[in-house]
Structure formats: C-alpha cells, structure tokens
C-alpha cells in the first residue's frame, strides 16, 4: 500500500479563498488542529462575504475553545458588522469534543436544521488524530452535507487524516496556516473560557430543585458523592432542545442548588457531563469519578518485588499528584503502605509488616514511618529497615502509640553491633500520648537511647513538612492504635503567559506572592520589579493557578465502636483516598468483635459517612483468601466508592 501524494497548500489569502469557496457550494467545513487559526479565518471570510452582500452563518463546533458563544456549547451565529451574533445554541456540558463526539455531532446537526438557507461555515474542533478525529471529520461531512473541506495546515507537517480526507468525495482545499498562528497553552485556553463563563453568569439567580424530580441525562456523577457535583456545568433540555445552561452550586440532602442567568427557564430534564470549575477557579474537564476498577501500575521504583508463591491477593496501587501509594503485601498480607513522593525521591511507610518485597534503595529513602500498633504483622518489618540503613544515612523518624520506644529499643538490643562503628542506623522515635510526643533518639552501636524534649501538638498535627502534613487519632483495638491522615499542601503555579502579558519579570517577589496567598493574606502589598506595589489578591487572580492538596487516610485494626466510628469519620472527612481495613464479613461479626476489627459493612458505612472519594479496603482475613469477591460485594453494598481490583496480582 502506497501513501497518497501530498496535496499542495494554497496561500493564506482570505480574499482569494473567498472566491474559491463560492465556486464550490455553500457549506464549508474548516478543519485543522487547535491553534491553527480556524476561528480567525472563519471570521475574516464572513466579513468578506458580508461586504459582498451575502448573508453568512457559522456553527462554532468546538465546545472547549469556541470561536463565539459559550464554552461547553456549540452555537449558531450570523455575521453582523460587530461580529458574530448568536441565534441558537446547544449545551453539551463538556469541553471534550473527542470523548463526547456523538453528542457533539447530534447537537451540530440540530443547529443546522435551525439555520436558514445560505452560506454556512462550520468551525470544527481541533481533534485531528485517531479514531476521534476520523469520526468527527466523516460525521460532520455526512451529516451536514459539506461541499468543501478547507484544511488549515503548516507546510512542515503532512495533512492530518489524509486517507479520510481523500475518501470523503467532496472538494478538499488545503491552505497555509497564518504565519502568526500558534497553539495556545492549556492554561491560556482555560483562563479565556473561564472568563467567558464568568461573564455569562455575572447576573444570575440561584434556584433549588429536588433531585428526585429531575431526569438526569449525560454522564452525571453518583448522587451519593456531593463533591463531584459542585461547580459542574448543567443544562435544562426539552426534546433535545437547550432551554437554559448554568452551574451547579451544591448537592445536599437530595436537593440541587443551581446558578442560572436571571429569569432563565427550567425543565424536568437536566444534562450533566464533565465541564467543571475546579478549586482553582478554572473551567476544565473534571477527572472521571473513580469508583469502579482501578487499573494503574506504578513505576518500578514504587513497585514491590515479585516473589515466588505470593499469596497476598489483590495489591492496590493508587496514583495521586506527584505520589504513588502501594499496598505492598496485598489485601491479605501484612499491612505495609508505601507512599512514594516521586519528584522528591522520598518514601513514607505506614506500618511495617513483612518488608522483604521492597528494595534496599527504598529503605535508604524512607524519611518517616507511621506505626499503627506493635503487633508483629505491623512492626515485624523493622528488622529489614534496620539492616538496610547501615551506612551514612540521615535519621529516620518513627511515630506510633505508647510503648513504641521500648519495642524499637528491644529489637535493636537483641543484635550485636560491635563492628559498625559510627555507621549504625539512626532513628528518632516519637510515642503519641494524647496531645504530646514523647521522643527518644537511638543510634545503633553508640550506647543507650537518648531522651529528647517532649513536643506538644494540637488537632492531631504531628508532622508539618513544607510539602505535606500528617495528623493522627488514637483508636481502640483492645490496645491503643493510631490512624493517620496524610495531606499534601496546596501548590501555587505562575502562568508565564500572563506574566509576559503584564510585562513583569520573574523574581523573588513571586515567592512572596505565593507565601502571602498560602497564608490567606490577600491584602498584603507585593513590591514588583518596577518598584510599584500591588495587592497580593489582585496579582494572584491573574497570575497564579492553584493546585489543591490531596488527602490520604490510613486506618487498620480498630474495633467497631461508636467512639471509633466518630473519630475516624472526622479524620477521613472528604479524603481523596482512604485505605481502611475490612477484615471480616458480616456473617463473622462475632469474630470481628472478639478480635477488635471492622467488618466490610462497618468499613463501608464509615467511608460513606466521611464523604470519601475512593475507598481502598485491605487487611482481609485469610479465611476469605479463595473468595475475596465476597468481601468486595459486601463493601460495595454499603459504599459506592470502593475501588474494585483488577486481576493483576
């Protein structure tokens, strides 16, 4: 099979192109990658046609970066002296033309039926590769009876979807991109569409409706996950006609609070997809809700060794921003959660069960260990850590319940250290007693442990690192156990495009701005490179994008008591990921009570009450080793947010 010969590109000359287009029919599709200049050329052609006395209409078919109209919609407009005037629009409630190409094609087709006869330009989405690009191109040409496909392209690149273009049976007109056309960055596009959306909702009313009274269509998130609804675009539709479009403010107690333009109409059918204003204020595509199967393989430096005869069952692995969390020994093995802070080459461990499946290099990079309690399946792996850290390594901090210093010292004292000199592993151990840490320092081979000053803490905050915090609570397992909440800190990133537009140079003042905003001091005056000063809040609104922190909670070996439930629900409130034990089925509740463990049902109920996004259950009793699906089924009956395993262990 030979490749088709390349088609020559016509010069970028709107006047000449207008003449060529008029000779070949009245329906013209402008096709090309994002940032190639389709919307600019569409407007220029419409102006030329209008000057010649021709009425010109256009469908802006890119919901993510529309040439006119609202983001999250496709719009029909007519050219006037002042520009495009929207006469009709169809809400998609998504910015992703590739993923939702069938709804987009249906919406564009409905708009075409509303258009009067005459010259029609279609400004296509910038999806020009793969199956999505092929289906959008061929679908638009067939549904809209296109006469000419005007392909904007650069001389240095082959025409996109060449085979599809040649098979359409319509005139193909390849044209040089404008020399100054450039692909805008994601942040620039997001800021532009966000500004359009906020302007649209500047004068708005808020209404409250019962979810039970609505017909939800599109791809709405689960009703029992209120956070997933907040700030999503939504549209009221009637027989495939958009009546109004707005934004969900909140979902609470079965009621939807929705922001709509003043006096906008409503219907019983509500369209919801994935366009959403995130916590940083930008209108983007929401991350798909994460219940269901989790298919993710962490990189080699976060993945435990494979071992012969492994019988730990499903081995959960979760990816968060800049970190990977892996349940090293699976849901049946000794508890050991490895949290890899990837960009920092740093690891945290939650519990220290069997550690033989982790590499020695990981042990070198462990900075902190958080022990729930000192039963052997939770602390027995300390000997691996001890042996692996012989050498010139910094001190490793270990946190845990009362008695931890004695347990660690006892294991160290059971070994002869006569040959290591000053290369003995060093540990700083902190026992959690109410709201104070009782601490000691031990360096093997250098004598007894040394007591350190006690530290008072408040609200469970035992670690306040520049990158993250860790909080703890004490629970009951017929012995004190600790549960932990890790939370990465909010990050502030500078939009360099806006920085250049404002004519400002980077410098230490940006760090001052980030510190002020991080501290909530929006009124702080920031001195700029030109010696002028502006308020931090004003600068941040245009310059900074916010990446909110993520919360991971770890809890295991706790009795099902009201006190445990209340405390753990508060600690895990709105966590992104909750690693929680689910040791027994409800049929074995007597065994759960005798041993101080949670049943799968109790685990699911706690997670639902805490409004957690994802539940990763673990620490299953070995009695279910051949039938783990029963545990997951009982969990899913109590909680819709459980992550089901894939068969990859």
From TrEMBL:
Domain of life, source organism: Bacteria
Record GO terms (molecular function): 3'-tRNA processing endoribonuclease activity
Upper classification of the organism: Bacteria, Pseudomonadati, Pseudomonadota, Gammaproteobacteria, Methylococcales
Domain AAA+ ATPase: 24-222
InterPro entries: AAA+_ATPase (IPR003593), CLP1_P (IPR032319), Metallo-B-lactamas (IPR001279), P-loop_NTPase (IPR027417), RibonucZ/Hydroxyglut_hydro (IPR036866)
SMART domains: AAA
SUPFAM superfamilies per the UniProt record, alphabetical: Metallo-hydrolase/oxidoreductase (SSF56281), P-loop containing nucleoside triphosphate hydrolases (SSF52540)
Protein name: Clp1/GlmU family protein
């Amino acid at each position: 099979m030979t490749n088709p010969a390349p088609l020559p590109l016509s010069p970028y000359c709107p006047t000449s192109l207008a003449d060529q287009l008029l000779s070949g029919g009245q329906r013209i599709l402008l096709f090309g990658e994002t940032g190639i200049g389709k919307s600019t050329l569409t407007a220029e052609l419409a102006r030329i046609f209008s000057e010649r006395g021709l009425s010109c209409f256009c469908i802006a078919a890119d919901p993510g970066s529309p040439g006119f109209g609202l983001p999250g919609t496709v719009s029909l407009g007519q050219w006037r002296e002042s520009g495009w005037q929207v006469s009709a629009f169809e809400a998609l409630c998504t910015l992703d033309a590739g993923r939702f190409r069938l709804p987009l094609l249906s919406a564009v087709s409905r708009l075409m039926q509303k258009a009067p006869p005459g010259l029609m330009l279609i400004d296509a989405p910038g999806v020009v590769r793969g199956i999505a690009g092929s289906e959008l191109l061929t679908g638009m040409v067939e549904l809209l009876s296109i006469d000419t496909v005007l392909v904007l392209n650069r001389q240095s690149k082959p025409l996109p979807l060449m085979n599809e273009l040649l098979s359409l049976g319509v005139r193909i007109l390849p044209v040089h991109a404008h020399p100054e056309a450039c692909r805008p960055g994601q942040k620039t596009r997001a800021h532009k569409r966000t500004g359009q959306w906020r302007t649209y909702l500047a004068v708005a009313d808020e209404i409250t409706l019962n979810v039970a009274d609505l017909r939800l269509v599109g791809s709405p998130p689960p009703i029992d996950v209120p956070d997933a609804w907040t700030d999503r675009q939504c549209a009221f539709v009637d027989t495939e006609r958009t009546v109004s479009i707005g934004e969900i403010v909140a979902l609470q107690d079965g009621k939807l609070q929705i922001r709509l333009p003043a006096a906008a109409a409503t219907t019983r059918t509500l369209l919801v997809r994935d366009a959403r204003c995130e916590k940083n204020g930008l209108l983007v595509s929401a991350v798909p809700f994460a219940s269901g199967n989790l298919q993710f393989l962490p990189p080699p430096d976060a993945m435990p060794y494979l071992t012969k005869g492994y019988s730990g069952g499903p081995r959960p692995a979760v990816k968060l921003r800049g970190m990977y969390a892996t349940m090293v020994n699976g849901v049946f093995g000794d508890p050991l959660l490895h949290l890899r802070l990837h960009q920092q080459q740093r690891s945290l461990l939650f519990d220290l069960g069997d550690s033989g499946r982790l590499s020695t290099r990981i042990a070198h990079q462990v900075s902190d260990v958080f022990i729930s309690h000192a039963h052997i399946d939770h602390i027995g792996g300390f000997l691996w850590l001890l042996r692996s850290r012989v050498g010139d390594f910094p001190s490793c901090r270990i946190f845990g319940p009362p008695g931890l210093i004695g347990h660690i010292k006892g294991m160290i004292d059971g070994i002869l250290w006569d040959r290591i000199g000053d290369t003995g592993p060093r540990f700083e151990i902190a026992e959690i007693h109410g709201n104070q840490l009782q601490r000691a320092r031990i360096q093997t081979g250098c004598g007894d442990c040394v007591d350190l000053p006690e530290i008072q803490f408040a609200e469970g905050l035992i670690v306040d690192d520049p990158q993250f915090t860790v909080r703890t609570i004490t629970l009951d397992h017929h012995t004190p156990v600790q549960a932990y909440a890790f939370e990465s800190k909010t990050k502030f990133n500078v939009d360099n495009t806006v920085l250049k537009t404002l004519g400002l140079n980077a410098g230490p003042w940006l760090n001052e701005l980030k510190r002020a905003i991080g501290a909530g001091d929006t009124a702080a005056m920031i001195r700029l490179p030109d010696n002028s000063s502006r308020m931090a809040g004003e600068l941040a609104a245009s310059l900074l994008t916010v990446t909110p922190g993520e919360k991971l909670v770890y809890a295991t070996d706790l009795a099902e008591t009201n006190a445990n439930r209340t405390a753990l629900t508060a600690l895990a409130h709105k966590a992104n990921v909750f690693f929680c034990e689910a040791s027994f089925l409800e049929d074995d509740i007597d065994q759960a009570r005798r041993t101080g463990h949670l049943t799968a049902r109790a685990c699911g109920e706690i997670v639902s009450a805490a409004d957690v996004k994802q539940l990763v259950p673990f620490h299953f009793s070995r009695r279910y080793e051949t039938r783990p699906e029963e545990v997951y089924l009982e969990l899913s009956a109590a909680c819709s947010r459980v992550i089901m395993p894939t068969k990859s262990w």
